Amino acid sequence: MFKNNYENTYFLTSTAIVKKQRNSDISEVAFVGYSNSGKSTAINILTNKKKLARISKTPGRTQLINYFAVSKKKYLVDMPGYGYAKAAKLLKLEWEKTIIKYFKIRASLKGLVLFMDIRNPMKKLDENIIHFALRFRIPLLILLTKSDKITLEKRRQKLQIVSEKLSKFSLTSCDINLFSAVHKTGVYELREKLDSWYNE
Ligand SMILES: Nc1nc2c(ncn2[C@@H]2O[C@H](COP(=O)(O)OP(=O)(O)OP(=O)(O)O)[C@@H](O)[C@H]2O)c(=O)[nH]1
Ligand SMILES: [Mg+2]
Questions:
Q1: Does the beta carbon of 35 sit less than 6 angstroms from any atom of ligand 1?
Q2: Is 40 in the pocket of ligand 1 (CB under 6 A)?
Q3: Helix (H, G, I), strand (E, B) or coil at 53
Q4: Residue 160, SS3?
Q5: Does residue 61 line the site of ligand 1, with CB under 6 A?
Q6: Whole-number mean pLDDT of the chain?
Q7: Helix intervals (H) in 36-166
Q8: CA 36 to ligand 2 centroid distance, Å
Q9: What is the per-residue pLDDT for 60?
Q10: Is the pLDDT of residue 189 over 90?
């Protein structure tokens, strides 16, 4: 069984800026990735709630940092997606600044889940995130999302490609898992990883 009951998760707050987490009892895990990669969908699947996080076919849906509480002192953070094509350049720069600041000042951050559409993984901004995670020593889990969209054979190929690209980074350990909201693939593994980060 899991140490946390993810179905009890509730919405806490949304913020546009990163504030320092002063309560050292809090543990946070952040979901990051390109816009439309499936972060908000994964929050709903993880928590078994249809409408906890807002999902959209239009990229750029989540524009604020959304905080959810799995329990009183364990937070899930849904970060705004990056690479939203229509976003102004300035906004893109702001986003990078926001995420770097977040990594720097949130001592409560225990882990990072990086979401990548399995059909198009390891894009430029994904690699930037991996660099940041390394630099700030934040444990990382990679989810290849929408795995239902491609064949089993293709999934294997993509896993191979991502793990090869990852080996170029000096990450000591980083799991790469398939994820599908349609088939509910990878939900168990995600809960296990969150449990381990929250309870370390
Ligand atoms: N087939 C399939 N579609 C998915 C899956 N996960 C998400 N989607 C779809 O992908 C689209 C984007 O999902 P979101 O969860 O809103 O993506 P997001 O990463 O939160 O996007 P932003 O909020 O813009 O950063 C929606 O239409 C989802 O229904 C999946 O595992 N399989
Ligand atoms: Mg979202």
A1: yes
A2: yes
A3: coil
A4: helix
A5: yes
A6: 89
A7: 39-47, 89-105, 124-135, 152-166
A8: 7
A9: 59
A10: yes
- Regarding beta strands 74-78 and 27-33, do their DSSP bridges make them parallel or antiparallel, or are they unpaired? parallel
**Distance set, CA 155 to CA 37, 38, 53, 127, 168 (Å):** 16, 17, 27, 20, 21
Gap from CA of 108 to ligand 2 centroid (Å): 22
| pTM of the shown model | 0.94
Is 79:39 a contact under the CB 8 Å cutoff? Answer: yes
| Average of per-residue pLDDT across 92-120 | 87
Nearest-CA residue for ligand 1 atom 21 is 36
Q: Report CA(61)–ligand 2 centroid distance (Å).
A: 6
- 77 Cα–ligand 2 center, Å: 11
On whether the CB atoms of residues 52 and 43 are closer than 8 A, the answer is yes
* Each residue's pLDDT tens digit, 1-12: 899 999 999 999
Q: What is the pLDDT of residue 185?
A: 96
The average pLDDT across 102-115 equals 90
For residue 86, the ligand closest to its alpha carbon is: 1
pLDDT number for residue 106: 82
How does 80-104 read in b/e, with b if 16+ C-beta sit within 10 Å?
A: bbbbbeebeeeeeeebeebbeebbe
Map out the domains of the chain with their CATH numbers.
6-198 (3.40.50.300)
Ligand nearest to the CA of 84: 1
> Which pLDDT score is estimated for 1?
86
The response to whether residue 66 sits with its C-beta less than 6 Å from ligand 1 reads no
